[in-house]
Write a structure and sequence with these properties.
Layout: H1 2-10, H2 16-19, H3 35-43, H4 58-68, E1 71-73, E2 85-88, H5 95-98, H6 104-107, E3 126-133, E4 138-145, H7 158-177, E5 180-189, E6 198-209, E7 212-221, E8 227-237, H8 240-245
Parallel strand pairs: 1-2
Antiparallel strand pairs: 2-3, 3-4, 4-6, 5-8, 6-7, 7-8
The chain binds ligand 3IX.
Ligand 3IX is lined by residues 94, 97-98, 114, 166-167, 170-171, 174, 178-179, 181-184, 210-212, 234, 236, 238, 242-243.
Length: 246
Amino acid sequence: MARNLARILGGCGSLVPFMKTPACPPRNSSSIPPARTLVQMLFSKSRDFSLPNSSWGEEMMRLYEFYNGQSDVETEGEENQGREWKRLPSYNRSLKYATGGVYLSKIIQSKARLFTRNIREPGAAFEYVLFINKEKERCVCVFQAGHLLEGPPGHVHGGAIATMIDTVTGTHASAISAPVMTANLNIDYRSPIPLGSTVLIESTLEKTEGRKLYISCKVTSTDGSKRHTDATALFVSISVAHLLKG
Ligand SMILES: CCCCC/C=C\C/C=C\C/C=C\C/C=C\CCCC(=O)SCCNC(=O)CCNC(=O)[C@H](O)C(C)(C)COP(=O)(O)OP(=O)(O)OC[C@H]1O[C@@H](n2cnc3c(N)ncnc32)[C@H](O)[C@@H]1OP(=O)(O)O
């Protein structure tokens, strides 16, 4: 941890273009936070947004419990129990993973966050939980769409659906080969998704070719009877340096 911190803080000048905020204020600058705030920023526990909250409806809870019952929860430093699925925790700072467990954006006080996890009001926008089955090369996401995602009256905006497909396939690709960037995303919208409903988003790894990962994805009603959306995505593995270059 200390080594990671030193490395990141030592190199923070190079992060300026990426974060668009002054990463290294001059010494004695009044913008340096008090020591207590710094300690809180570095060590405060972050919230895992993929756990149930009071906004989750009956169907969301039922499916969460179904997959969670067959899952090992991914916790740092703990052994896998050998179950089929694994719930992936979801924080509002994706760089946690790219920096070996250190919240880079917290340290430099950037506002950079994962936007699907930026809306604080429970149930207002993206409520979702992702499970991965590495053996079967599949991911499943249970997604409940809140009222802020309205596009056509009473239905979910196509951009919000694209966001969720990118998130599910991107998280899937990251779990196989982190970090990655979306290079291509193709979407066929087949039937609208009612606002407030819970749907399943399933992704499958089709093939890998060197740094390229090809993933397919479908969005269906939770009983599988209605096909809402089909998609294919291409992800390219990148170095962390590429990510910070911006
Ligand atoms: C924001 C990323 C966060 C990552 C954080 C890390 C871990 C995250 C942990 C958990 C995950 C949490 C949340 C995930 C949620 C969402 C994921 C969202 C991801 C995004 O929302 S991300 C934003 C949108 N995304 C971009 O902003 C990309 C802009 N772009 C580039 O940054 C470059 O363009 C790049 C890197 C794609 C490639 O650049 P490059 O220089 O590394 O590689 P190069 O160009 O050589 O391509 C290598 C091979 O891919 C082929 N290829 C490339 N592009 C292609 C295309 N479009 N169609 C067909 N083939 C293509 C080439 O033809 C070649 O193929 P070949 O090797 O066979 O010749």
